Amino acid sequence: MSPRSFALSLQSPPSKAHSLLVTGGAGFIGSNFVIQRVAGGTPVLNLDKLTYAGNPENLASIADSPLYTFVHGDICDAHLVARLLAEYQPSAIVNFAAESHVDRSITGPEAFLRTNIDGTFTLLQAARAYYETLTGEARDTFRFLHVSTDEVFGTLSPTDPAFHEDTPYAPNSPYAASKASSDHLVRAWHHTYGLPTLITNCSNNYGPFQFPEKLIPLMISNALAGKPLPVYGDGQQVRDWLFVEDHCSAIHTVLASGKVGETYNIGGNNQRANLHVVHTLCALLDELRPDSPYIPHSKLLLYVKDRPGHDRRYAIDARKIQRELHWLPAESFETGLRKTVQWYLDNPAWIESVTSGAYQHWIDQNYAQRGATS
Ligand code: NAD
Ligand code: DAU
Fold first, then answer.
1. Measuring from each residue's beta carbon to the nearest atom of ligand 1, which residues come in under 6 Å?
2. Could you give the CA distance from residue 205 to residue 195 in angstroms, rounded to a whole number?
3. Mean pLDDT of 101-125
4. Whole-angstrom Cα distance, residue 278 to residue 260?
5. Could you tell me the distance, in angstroms and rounded to a whole number, from the CA of residue 27 to the centre of ligand 1?
6. pLDDT tens digits for 311-339?
7. Residue 328: phi, psi to the nearest 5?
8. Average pLDDT across the chain, whole number
9. For residue 26, what are the contacts with CB-CB under 8 A and spacing of at least 6?
10. I need a labelling partner for 290 at 20 to 30 A (CA). Which of 98, 153, 195, 331 fits?
11. pLDDT of residue 2
């Protein structure tokens, strides 16, 4: 499928009510969110630069929907963003667009500062100008929702309480620092200019359409191909996992009922050590692929040199969104992981299409320098 881009003139924009400008909607979480919202009857304009992480194939199921429009472009392009807002007249902006991989931020931080900081700044300025043109109900209901991460809070010891909304920011990687900067900009645009903003800080996502540079899809993809499963350091780092569709439903909830100017932590209370995650994936693959030549898949596990500055533990306290907005995740880690493994097994062509030349270059660059430690 080729992206259905358009020239900059929207002849008949959908009704203003409840239409969304989504940025980064061809990426992992963004595409799940766009599919969910279009299925719910919401018109969506998706602005995406289509970096290595953006894939129009993720949106094949809704590509022909009259509710869905795709624009190939950069959130750093102020002129483009202003034109889109003026022509599409969305009732909200949901900003997913970002460079999102910590390891890439270590080898090449520039793109992270550009998109995550400058891009968010550009969107905020355009949103501010657009907001000033709104009147009546359109002005009262307009929202700018910024999708952020728990990594802005830094790292936890095994006994520390989970991150809550008032935990001080202490980002440790270039990625986390760029996301923390963008959160501060969003906060300031609310306090200084009165822009009706919302921020969500979510824990690690997993599920369909996740690019296989991240832990879970990388391990599935490597295991299916009989390649080593590279575990950084001792594998005892803890992440707090949430199925992507639950993250999307939480964002929808915050958009619909969140209090302007507030931040909401999102998580499913699923803290797991990386080694546990990898062994669980191997066991699922052993069960779901009984004819695999690589059984038991855990034989493929390989300890490699650790990530510099590797955060030891993340954990999200999601009681605020549960208490105030009555959001709860639908999936446990076990049900979500099983669905995810099954999705990758059912979609070998998707894996094939994203693990092409440029991907191999990244894998060589990231893992060749690591070397085995066991
Ligand atoms: P992703 O890397 O899969 O997708 C990012 C998308 O943004 C891609 O489609 C890419 O083409 C697009 N993009 C990048 N630069 C752009 C630019 N300058 N202009 C327009 N589009 C651009 O990321 P993801 O995992 O889906 O994460 C989405 C958002 O959620 C990010 O802001 C990330 O910080 C946040 N987040 C991610 C997780 C997670 O576990 N993946 C958890 C919490 C928060
Ligand atoms: O916490 C939310 C964040 O989660 C998001 O903001 C980021 O966008 C997202 O990429 C993710 O960051 P992590 O660094 O936690 O995700 P990643 O999948 O890269 O790594 C998860 C853990 O697994 C981490 O402790 C590093 C480890 N790891 C990762 C890879 C790719 C390995 O041990 N081996 C690997 O090959």
1. 23-24, 26-30, 47-51, 53-54, 74-76, 96-98, 100, 115, 119, 147, 149, 179, 202, 204-205, 211
2. 28
3. 98
4. 39
5. 6
6. 999 999 999 999 999 999 999 999 999 99
7. -140, 145
8. 95
9. 3, 46, 48, 50, 54, 55, 56, 58, 59, 70
10. 331
11. 37
Which position among 74, 99, 103, 150 bears the catalytic label?
Answer: 150
- Which-ligand-closest: CA of 116? 1
The residues, any chain, with a CB within 8 Å of residue 92's CB and separated by 6 or more, are 20, 21, 142, 143, 144, 145, 255
Answer whether 212's CB lies under 8 Å from 220's CB: yes
Closest atom of ligand 2 to 237 CA is 25
pLDDT tens digits, 143-166: 999 999 999 999 999 999 999 999
Whether 32 is in the pocket of ligand 2, judged by its Cβ within 6 Å, is no
Options 68, 131, 175, 303, the catalytic residue: 175
User: How far apart are the C-alpha atoms of 340 and 249, rounded to whole Å?
Assistant: 17
Kindly list the distances between the CA atom of residue 219 and the CA atoms of 297, 317, 339, 348, 354, in Å, as whole numbers in the listed order: 10, 27, 15, 14, 15
Confidence at 363, pLDDT banded by 50, 70, 90: confident
> If you write DSSP's letter for every residue of 334-353 in order, what string do you get?
HHHHHHHHHHHHH-HHHHHH
Q: Where are the alpha helices (DSSP H) in 101-228?
A: 102-107, 110-112, 120-133, 136-141, 174-193, 215-224
* Nearest atom, ligand 2, residue 232 CA: 33
CATH classification number, 5-207+241-271+310-332, choose in 3.40.50.720, 3.90.1150.10, 3.40.50.20, 3.30.420.40: 3.40.50.720
Contact 252, 200 (CB under 8 A): no
How crowded is residue 335: how many other Cβ atoms within 10 Å of its Cβ? Answer: 11
Asked whether 273 and 346 are in contact (CB, 8 A), the reply is no
Rounded Cα–Cα distance for residues 149 and 107 (Å): 20
Distance from Cα 293 to the centre of ligand 1, integer Å: 35
3-class DSSP state of 38:
helix
Q: Is the separation of the CB atoms in 48 and 5 below 8 Å?
A: no
